[in-house]
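Our preliminary data section would be incomplete without showing what the modeling component actually yields. Below, a chain of 292 amino acids is followed by its predicted structure, encoded as tokens that our downstream tools consume directly.
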Amino acid sequence: MKSRMTDRSFNVLNITFLAIIALITLFPIYYIFVVSFTDPDEYMTKGLVLFPQHWSLKSYQYLLSNSSFVRASGVSGFLASVGTLLSLTVTAAGAYALSRKRLTGRKPILMLILLTTLFQPGLIPPYLLMRDLGLINSIWALILPVLSSGWYVILMKGFFDSIPDSLEEAATIDGYSDLGIWFRIILPLSLPAMAAFGLFYAVAYWNTFFAAVLYINNPEKWPLQILLQTLLIDSSSTASGDIAQELASQQRLPSETLKMAAVVIATVPIMMVYPFLQKHFAKGAMVGSVKG
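Predicted structure:
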């Protein structure tokens, strides 16, 4: 009886503690969402708004009609779509080739890929390489250096190792070419792994920040995260151009409502991707990690 009372007391305290932590964690998200939809006049009057009386889309309407913000969103969308597609293609093709035992020099290549996960070149060599290739101020400078990841190649190779060689041999007997086997058999079986790593790549490309700071000097080619950082932190800096000041000063809108709306717009799209990939995500990540 005493042990049951002790267990119940522990469960109550545990649930209460976790509920408090959850509230503390979710409150900033709630506050950002509420302020972004608060009527600008009400926000300027009250300052701190937790339960707005008047909801408004003025901040969103202005941001989505502003050419600078729309252009930055388009750059991030291009990175997340084209970059993810190219990265998945390169990673999946390389991992599948390395999973086939008939590949000549498979072990040395794996060792070289493993070395890339242990040692990093730093900042100067990649920058000099991008400069010599003429990719400074080019969107491709944000894709090509991170086109693939050695760690992802190794994990995806573990997934392809689980596909039996007999399946490929049977397809060869049926008259399929190597490309036919890849597109008609291997890729359909690889949807869980492709979904999992596609999500990883999409999030990384959408959140591109540091590479853009290094390689992109033209404000017109900034991704959304650079513009968001400029709007939130560096709005008074002349080095950032006039974009953030323009967003924060026009239309008689409070800068805080614009900032919160920009955060929501930058966060929601990538969050909406996960539900569509959820059924594949857990299986793909687990199989790759166990076999790798």
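The first helix runs from residue 2 to 37. The chain has two domains: 2-37, 60-291. Preliminary results of this kind motivate Aim 1 of the renewal.
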